[in-house]
Amino acid sequence: MKGMGKGVKSFKEGMNEPTEEEMNRRIEEEIQRRADAEAARISQEERNNNPVNE
Hints:
Layout: H1 8-14, H2 20-49
């Protein structure tokens, strides 16, 4: 683990938390992934319930 035995400054550098912007970006990415997964699930269900007659 970075910072072990190297003083407070090094420890703080190793423990940097993500910025608010990074957190918001990660949240938006997760929301989009979940929305895409839900849309794919719904689409698959529709294909299974309404097969195309060939």
